[in-house]
Amino acid sequence: MSGAARVTLAGIDAWLRPERAVWLPGAATLVVADLHVGKEAAFRDAGLAVPGGILDETLGRLGRAIEACGARRVVVAGDLVHSRRGLPGTVVERFAAWRSGIGAAIDLVRGNHDRHAPELPPGWKVGEAGTELRLGSIRIVHEPGEAEDPFTIAGHLHPTVTLRSGVDRLTLPCFAVTPRSLTLPAFTRFARGVSVVSSPGSRFYAIAGDDVVEVDPDRASGRDSAGGAVCAATIAR
After folding, report:
1. Contact 86, 41 (CB under 8 A)
2. Distance, C-alpha 202 to centroid of its chain
3. Residue 15: which CATH number?
4. What's the domain count of the chain?
5. Could you report the per-residue pLDDT of 182-223, keeping only the tens digit for each?
6. What is the tens place of the pLDDT at every residue in 147-178?
C-alpha cells in the first residue's frame, strides 16, 4: 500500500495511512479522529480570520482514503464536529452533499467536542456508537486512558513529533503506538498538536507528505515542552 506503514495492533494487520487514518483491512474499516467539522466557521463567527477551504480539503481527503482502501465502514473516534456555533446551514449542507457520494457506513464514537451537537443532522447519515465501539479485539474511544485493555485506538491528543538537527526543527503529525494503544493524529489539518515523548515500547510514525515514516524514538522527544510532558503522561504505558 503506497505511502502507508504496516503495523500489527493486538494481532491485527493495520496500515497507518498518510491521509491521517488507520486502515483495518480485515474489518474493511477506516478509523479516523478529530475532523472538527465547522471549526473554521466557528472561528469566523467569533471574528477571527482563518484560511478558506478547510472543510472541503478535510472531506476531500477522507473521501479519497475511503475510495483508495475500498472501505465499507468509517469509524470516527471522536470530535466529528467542533461546536454548535460552527454548524451553520452552509456547513451542514456541504457535509450532507459530500455524504451523499459516500457509500461506506459512518459511525461516530462521541468525543468532548461532539457534546455541542447532541443530534447530528439526519442528512449526514452518521450512526451513533456511544462513547466506545468494539471491533474484534480492539476498543475504539475518543480519549486515551491510563491503562488500556483490550488494545485501544483513540484520538483527542493530536500527537506530533518534532525532529531536530542542530538548530533546525520540523514538527509533523504522527501516529503514537504503544504495546496497548494507538493514538491517531488529528484528521483536520486545522488543529494544534501535542508533542510526544519517547517511552519504553513506544513507536512513532510521522506523516511526511504522502508517506508515513517510522521515527527513531530518540529523535521524537518533546522533553523541552510542557505539552510533551502532558502527552507522555497520557500515552506512555
Report:
1. yes
2. 18
3. 3.60.21
4. 1
5. 999 999 999 988 888 777 789 999 999 999 999 987 665 544
6. 667 899 999 999 999 887 777 888 999 999 99
